[in-house]
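The pair is quoted verbatim underneath.

:::
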Amino acid sequence: MDRQMYHYAPVSKALAELAKKGYTTDFNLEEERIVNTPDDFTIEHIYRYEGETDPADEATVYGVEAKDGTKGVFVASHGAYTEKSAAKVLHEMSIQGREDN
């Protein structure tokens, strides 16, 4: 996971920047795919947005690539990290990547 890049930007800017890089699939619509086959995905970019006044405004935008070459985004809000959610799977992947370095 050496390629992980952490950025701090508003969600709209993160999505626009990732779209320019070819990350066009909305993986929020394919959440079960990430949960069921996490080994098929790598996180290429992570954008974090921290709400200036309200922690509930926090969000993380993941630039994700599937083994089949599909590039897309997954947006996780502050409260999205439930036990069997794609947000939790991706968060654990990002932590694992940092620990491996």
